[in-house]
Design goal:
35% strand; ten-stranded antiparallel beta sheet; alpha+beta
C-alpha cells in the first residue's frame, strides 16, 4: 500500500543465553557497521519483575522489583531502524517499514551476524508486533475505517471520549496472537513499554491530532528449536500471515482503498 498505516514494527527472536556476550561485541559491531547499522551504543535499563508468590504474613503481595539489564543498540544512519541485542535475544524495530520481505531479510541478516560470531544453539521464541494508525481525514469518520466489532461504544455515549479499547486473544496453529484496537482523542503514540525504546515516529503520523485508532497486533510462537535461519524465516512469515488476517478483519474495504 502506498499510504500504509503501519508506523512501528518490531520483531524479536529469543535464543540460548550468552552470559559472555561482551567478548563478542567487537566482532559483531564491525559487521553491523558494514551492514549499514553504524550507530552503536550501550544501554542499561531497569526491567520490572512482578513476583508470582503467595502473600506475606501481613497479607500483602510481594513487592515488584527492578533488575538492571544491559543491551546494545545498532542503529542505521537515519535513526529509523535499530537492532537491539541482549544476552538472550535480538530484536529489530523500525519506524520506516517497507515490506515484510525486506523487514524479515534485514532481521535475519542481523541475526546471522550474531550467529557467525557466537554459534547459537537454539531459539525458543519468535515474536512480531505491528502498530497501525487509523487517521480519518477531515471529511471522514472512524466507522468508515473500522468494523463495528472493534468500535465498542464509540460515538454512542455523550461526553468527551477518553478512550475505547478492544482486545482479542487467539491461539492458532502457529502460536498466540493478541489483537488490540485503541480509539482515543489526541495524537498517535506508543505504549509506555515500547515508547521509551523506539526510534522517532514519522511526523506524518504524530502531527495530526483528533479522534483516531491504533491497531496493535502482537503474534508470537514459543517453541524450542535448533538454530535455523530458514526455519525462523518460515516462522516470521507464518506470524505475519496471522497478523494480516487480523488486520483485514478489523478494517473496512473503504480503509484498504484509502491506503492503496
Amino acid at each position: 500500500m502506498k499510504n500504509a498505516p503501519v508506523y512501528f514494527t518490531v520483531a524479536q527472536i529469543r535464543f540460548n543465553p550468552i552470559l559472555d556476550m561482551e567478548a563478542y561485541l567487537t566482532t559483531i559491531q564491525e559487521r553491523m557497521r558494514k551492514s549499514h547499522f553504524p550507530d552503536f551504543k550501550r544501554e542499561k535499563i531497569q526491567q520490572l519483575i512482578l513476583p508470582f508468590a503467595p502473600p506475606t504474613d501481613g497479607g500483602q503481595p510481594p513487592n515488584p522489583s527492578f533488575v538492571p539489564r544491559a543491551r546494545c543498540v545498532f542503529g542505521n544512519i537515519d535513526r529509523t531502524s535499530e537492532f537491539i541485542l541482549e544476552h538472550n535475544a535480538m530484536a529489530l524495530q523500525t519506524t520506516a517499514y517497507d515490506t515484510s520481505e525486506k523487514f524479515f531479510k534485514t532481521m535475519l541478516d542481523g541475526l546471522a551476524i550474531v550467529h557467525e560470531a557466537i554459534l547459537l544453539d537454539f531459539t525458543e521464541r519468535v515474536g512480531l508486533r505491528y502498530f497501525d494508525a487509523v487517521l480519518p481525514k477531515n471529511d471522514e469518520l472512524l466507522p468508515q475505517y473500522l468494523t463495528s466489532e472493534v468500535l465498542g461504544l464509540y460515538n454512542k455515549l455523550e461526553g468527551n471520549l477518553a478512550h475505547s479499547y478492544s482486545e482479542t486473544v487467539t491461539m492458532n496453529t502457529v502460536g498466540q496472537m493478541v489483537s488490540r484496537v485503541i480509539i482515543q482523542n489526541g495524537k498517535v503514540g506508543l505504549p509506555p513499554e515500547v515508547m521509551m525504546l523506539a526510534p522517532s515516529i514519522n511526523p506524518k503520523f504524530t502531527e495530526p491530532e483528533g479522534i483516531h485508532a491504533i491497531i496493535d497486533t502482537d503474534a508470537f510462537c514459543e517453541t524450542r528449536d535448533p538454530f535455523s535461519l530458514d526455519r525462523l524465516n518460515t516462522r516470521l512469515i507464518e506470524l505475519h500471515n496471522e497478523i494480516e488476517k487480523s488486520f483485514k478483519a478489523i478494517v473496512t474495504p473503504f480503509a484498504i482503498k484509502a491506503w492503496e
